[in-house]
Amino acid sequence: MTDFNQLQITENNPELLAEFISAMGASDDLRFLIDYQDSELANILESVNVQHRLQIVEVIPATRYWTILNFLQYETAKHIHQSLPENIASERLSCITETDVVNFADFLPTDFVDEYLLTQSKETVAYIQQALSYDDNKVGRYVEPYFLVANAKNSVGRIKSEILKNVESVVRLIIVRDASGIVGTVEPEAFLTQENNVKLKELAVITPVLEDTQDIQEVSKQVSIDGHSHWFPVLSDGKIMGVMSLTTITLTLRELSLQAVVAENVKSEEDLFTPLKVATRLRALWLVINLFTAFAASAIIGVFENVVEQVVALAILMPVVASMGGIAGSQTLAVAIRGIALNHLHQSNLRLLVNKEVKIALINGMVMGAVIASVVYYIFDSVALAMIICCAICVNSLAAALSGTLIPFTLKKLNIDPAVAGSVVLTTVTDVVGFLVFLGLGAIFLV
User: Fold this and answer.
1) How many beta carbons lie within 10 A of that of residue 331, not counting itself?
2) pTM
3) pLDDT tens by residue, 171-203
4) CA geometry: angle at 37 spanning 34 and 43, to 5°?
5) Range of 88's domain?
């Protein structure tokens, strides 16, 4: 499990990312990455393509691999592990812990999990099976059996002796109780400065007690991320079943709430309850801008008025071209805005994202273009019209990919909220490019 002092979830180091990409371009030795924190390496992994991710994984020690994966979005961790060569994957699996088995059970090989359970103690097997019986959003899924229950009257010296007797058993939290129930908790580090005769009740800190069936979102209302409490007791039917770390709570909340993440350094012109007059003015501004851009697209159609009059099929099919470009662009735009919000998209890795999106656009554009061309040929019995719409969709898909990636990044540089303005500019680009190519080719080959 990730240590609390490594909990730097919003780690944002564009300089390190730029240094890494520069090193990749120069084919330099990447072992300098070992000196960086796990959270920083996780941020780089989130910000580069599959090829670069594999090169990073090859460099970092196998003992750090699973800790770094815990910092990643779940789908990113899944993609990275499933793309590893078999020999590297086996090496990484040899360093996995029971907690990691629980966290990543959904994408670990079934035969590996079965063999792993055969080599573990009954207690470990019971812990893993119990954890996997809970849904991903329940506290019980993330409970760890690293605790010691002690009476409030016990002394520090006695607890130290108890811990030393079982040095192989990790203790993250001492849960202090008396006849009335749980009094509080003491973390083992607190014993370092205490005399042996000090009683636990004098050290016990009142700590929120969690229930195994609680949603993680509910837990966020109970615990305080102030650094004073790192572990919390978890009850099941009134009995202590384990402890849950603040790191796990925070990382899990981050994963579950990922779609709602908005970084502080991305300007937000309008929040949920912006005053009516302010919100109306902000939206009206972009509606007016969109009106002018719509006229720009209409002007393109006007240029080819004679073509549209002579070939009615072009007028019928124009919405198809515009729609395909708009949808493709909005998908790319969403990915880019999400990368900006999570601080994963920077100047240094922008080219990587553009290359990826262009490849996706080429594949989808050609496939969808061919499908639509087949339908058009069947309906209008025109090879030329089918080829024209196929070319228009392919070109518009490329325009959508480029604009969807570059527009939000450019707007951010101009201190304009890409979530508000991005779709307006994107629609203009895809409409203008789509109509220009479609009607232009129509003018050349059909009239």
Assistant:
1) 17
2) 0.67
3) 888 889 988 889 899 988 888 788 889 898 888
4) 100
5) 4-136
What are 319-333's pLDDT values in tens digits?
A: 888 888 888 888 888
CA distance 122 to 427: 60
Q: Which long-range contacts (CB under 8 A, 24 or more apart) does 159-164 make?
A: 159/191, 159/200, 160/191, 160/196, 163/188
Cβ-proximal residues to 37 (8 Å cutoff; 6+ apart), any chain: 6, 8, 11
Residue 293: pLDDT band with limits 50, 70, 90? low
Cα 111 from chain centroid (whole Å): 28
Q: How far is CA 205 from CA 156, 208, 238, 385, in A?
A: 15, 10, 20, 76
The identity of residue 259, as a single letter, is Q
- Residue 285 is assigned to a structural domain of this protein: yes
Helix (H) or strand (E) holding 20: helix 14-25
Higher per-residue confidence, 297 vs 48: 48
The answer to whether residue 38 is domain-embedded is yes
Same domain as 289, residue 156:
no
Is the pLDDT at 124 greater than 50? The verdict is: yes
In the chain, how many H helices and how many E strands?
19, 6
Quote the longest CA-to-CA distance of the chain.
99
Identity of the residue numbered 138: K
**Does one domain contain both 124 and 155?**
no
Assign 39 a pLDDT band (cuts: 50, 70, 90): confident
The answer on 328 and 430 residing in a single domain is yes
- Same domain (yes/no): 121, 154: no
Q: Tell me the residue type at 430.
A: T
Q: Among 76, 37, 80, 79, which residue's Cα sits nearest to residue 55?
A: 80
Residue 151 per-residue DSSP state: E
Instruction: Note the pLDDT tens digit of each residue in 340-393.
Output: 877 788 888 888 888 888 888 888 889 888 998 998 898 888 899 899 989 998
Rounded to whole angstroms, what are the CA distances from 131 to 127, 328, 397?
Answer: 6, 40, 45
Contact call for residues 311 and 442 (beta carbons, < 8 A) = yes
In this structure, of 115-119, 248-252, 387-391, the range with the lowest mean pLDDT score is 248-252
Evaluate whether 171 touches 147 at the Cβ level (below 8 Å): yes
CA distance 402 to 354: 7
Which amino acid is present at 429?
A: V
Give the integer Cα–Cα distance in Å for 5 and 110. Answer: 33
Average pLDDT over residues 115-126: 88
Same-domain pairing of 157 and 100: no
Helices (H), 155-304: 156-165, 200-203, 216-219, 246-256, 276-303
Is 238 inside a domain boundary? Answer: yes
